[in-house]
Write the structure tokens for this entry.
Amino acid sequence: MFCFGGTYYGDSVVVIQKDLPDLYWYGAKPEMIFCAGGKKAEAMIPQIYKSVNSYPYQKFYRAYPGPNSNAFISHAILSVKGFNMSLPNNAIGEDWLCGKKFFAISES
């Protein structure tokens, strides 16, 4: 599970830890938008870990307009082969441009 925290102590905003996935978010029930299994999932897992380390906003989080948790997921989608999906239109931060790009391809 990938968690997002603050940087009050200089920690990374992206943390990998064992935890329960799919927790309620301010009362909203989680919704599955992508599922992979078997060999496809096995091939994706190392790429997902690599995307964590290559995320350019390791020490910066801003809920609006971003970069936020959806900006990270967008980065992972674009970085991982086989992660063929897009975030819902109401996912604030989904189209945050990582790095210093003025134009880029969005996962959506």
Summary: Residues 2-79 form one domain. The chain has one domain: 2-79. The two ends are 23 Å apart (CA to CA).
